[in-house]
Structures are given as C-alpha cells and as structure tokens.
Amino acid sequence: MSTLPRLFTALWPPAEALSALAGELAEHPDWPPEGWRPIPTGRWHVTLRFHGEAEPGVLARRLEARASGLAAPWLRLAGAVSPLRVASVAVHPCAESDAAALAQLVSAAGGDPTDFGVHLAVARTARRDDAPPPAGPLARYRGPRWRPAEVCLVRSQPMSAGTRYTVLHRVRLSERAGLASTRG
Q1: Contact (Cβ atoms closer than 8 angstroms) between residue 8 and residue 154
Q2: N or C end: fewer C-beta atoms under 10 angstroms in the chain?
Q3: 180 φψ region: left (φ > 0), alpha (ψ -120 to 50), beta (else)
C-alpha cells in the first residue's frame, strides 16, 4: 500500500458564490433527488487536475513555478452538467480572456485544457446506473460572477465521517485581466 497522499489541484469559489448556490438549492425541498446525497458546501470546489497518489512537495514546487503570477479568471456557476453519478453545476468563464486564463490554470496544474469539463459537484449517488437529473434547480441556476484568489494543492483523505480536504499549498493569482472580464 502506498504511503503517498491522494492529491488534486483546485479553485475554491468565494463564500458569496457558494452561499448563492446553497441558497438556491435550499429553496427546493425535493433536492437532492431520492438516492442522492448532498456534498457538504465546505467541500464544494472546482478541480483543475486530479493527481491521485503523488509526492506533495514535487507538485507544490511545480504548481508554484507554473501558476505564480497567472491571471485569476472571472467565473460564474450556471447550468447543470452531468458527469456519471455526480450532480454538478457548470463553471463558465465570463469572457474569452477568462477562458484563456482558466485554460492556463488547468495547464499549470498539469491538466489538458482541451479535455477538461469545468464543474462543481453538489451531490453524488452510489448507484451505478443513476444519471444526474436533467432538470431541477441546477439546470436553471445562474450565480454571481466570482474570481478565485488562489489555486490550491489539496490532499483528499477518506474518513469515517466523509472525505476531509486539507490545503497543502496555495499559489496567489494575479488580478490582471482584459477589459472584457469586467462585464457581467
């Protein structure tokens, strides 16, 4: 058995963006659907790259070298996406310059921006044949614009009470961006 931790690189939306989504979901007493369990809001994040079992020091140094000084994109949570057995809200860049900045962050994390589905998971099911509901509060949702302050290397640790995430390394992002990003 490996002693290396399970790691991923992620963005955490600010409290305002998470509160808006949580408020929307709370207005629907039938959410999540039967057979689905909600993911606690404290674990809501946008994964840029899952690394699996890896050496944290190596990944932290690599992330620092690749992401330091990159622009923080303006993003918005809006609409449903359907990875298998996960109910998720899509993450949309607000302008073309923000899409380019997000692609740079995915690359800095070691991911492939051309094969990357940006989403934030809010509920899961253990049943293999369950597909996320196509309608419901996520399908119509359009949250406020937000901008991540940092990109994080995170350890995922299974616990009896659920998975615990621990941020191991943070890289501050720049607020520089094109003028198109200031539009709502």
Answers
A1: yes
A2: N
A3: alpha
Q: What is the mean pLDDT of each run of 10 residues along the chain (184 residues)?
A: 84 97 93 88 95 95 97 95 81 96 97 90 78 75 96 90 90 73 42
DSSP string, 41-105: GGG--EEEEEEEE--HHHHHHHHHHHHTTPBPPPEEEEEEE--TTEEEEEEEESSHHHHHHHHHH
Length of the chain, in residues: 184
In the chain, where the domains are located: 6-173
How far is residue 156 from each of residues 6, 21, 24, 54, 61, measured CA to CA in Å? 5, 23, 27, 11, 19
